[in-house]
Amino acid sequence: MIHSMTGYAAASRDLGTAVINFEIKSVNSRYLDIGFRMGEDLRLLEMALRERISERVGRGKIEVRGYLQAQVGQAGSRRQSPDALQLAELARLTGEVRQVMPEASPLSVAEILRWPGVLADQGIPPDLMQATGLELFSALLDEFMASRNREGAKLADVLRERAARMREQVTSVMPMVPAALDAYRERLAARLREAVANLDEDRIRQEIGVFAAKIDVAEELARLNTHLDEVERVLKKGGAVGKRLDFLMQELNREANTLASKSVSSEVTGVALELKLLIEQMREQVQNLE
Asked: How many structural domains does the chain have?
């Protein structure tokens, strides 16, 4: 299975007095980078969630969002009351600040109630919150991985299609090379004869042979086919293939550049440019693979 680094999933669970919500999304990254945006009630889950993600994801920039949504207006809705100790501590801190900065404005009631820890939640016990949160996130993670796998399968199909088109281009250029070399030899020999009327024919053939060897692209075509074989093998094997395929794209691009630089005909040059276009399209897709 080929895994994309892009994915998304969301899930929620009704706890009666509140609804617990989770959302996870990811984009491509060189490494595994996990970030959390969790409500105060769910922060105790961060370490466990990080471990579960790390066990199943190898690469990508992942963001997890979690929060509780109160069921306002329902019978049995959770009640909140200010924590006396937190209020006393906040009053002490406020007094110390105003001793140093008398001009500081006092906190409003709304600001005090929004202060972390001031509202003591009597609705959901922490052990229930943890058990439910972990259970819900496990199901969410399964859905998230499935979305990455579906995206990865689509990307693999695109890469196979581009690789097949590249192989067609390489196959088409092979018959062109001998004829192009022969035509180039004739043109070069004619120009040499015009430039040096008394030049020895054996010397002309020798010089042309040396130059023809330098512009022969048989090795480049063979290496292109070898790299395409490896691309197909890696895609068939599956797993975390992004870095390996990225390296192969560099090698394919190197051979296509050499093919273009050694070309002695417009047809071969056209094939080399088409190969470079296909390689760039493949490289863009490879950047999204884990």
From this structure: 3
Give the predicted TM-score (pTM) of the model. 0.67
pLDDT top residue among 80 and 9: 9
Token pair, residue 279, equals: 């390689």
Which residues lie closer than 8 Å to 1 by C-beta, 6 or more apart?
Answer: 149, 152, 153, 238, 239
Co-location of 181 and 219 in the same domain: yes
Tokens of 71: 């069921």
Distance CA(80)–CA(178), nearest Å, equals 85
pLDDT reported for residue 151: 93
Query: pLDDT-derived band of residue 91, with 50, 70 and 90 as boundaries?
Result: confident
| Parent domain of 19 | 7-76+129-149
Residue 195 in this model has a pLDDT that exceeds 60: no
CA–CA separation, 134 and 47 (whole Å): 11
Query: What pLDDT is recorded for position 76?
Result: 44
Q: Inter-axis angle of helices 126-173 and 266-286, to 10 degrees?
A: 170
Phi, psi of 119, deg, nearest 5: -85, 115
Which token pair is 219? 């090795």
What is the C-alpha to C-alpha distance for residues 77 and 144, in angstroms, rounded to an integer?
31
Q: Would you call 243 exposed, middle or buried from its count of C-beta atoms within 10 A (0-12, 13-18, 19+)? A: middle
279 and 250 fall within a common domain? yes
For 152-167, the pLDDT digits (tens) are 999 999 999 999 999 9
Is residue 166 one of the residues assigned to a domain? yes
List, in sequence order, every residue forming a beta bridge with 26; answer none if it has no partner. 7, 62
Residue from 272, 235, 266, 268 nearest 253 by CA: 272
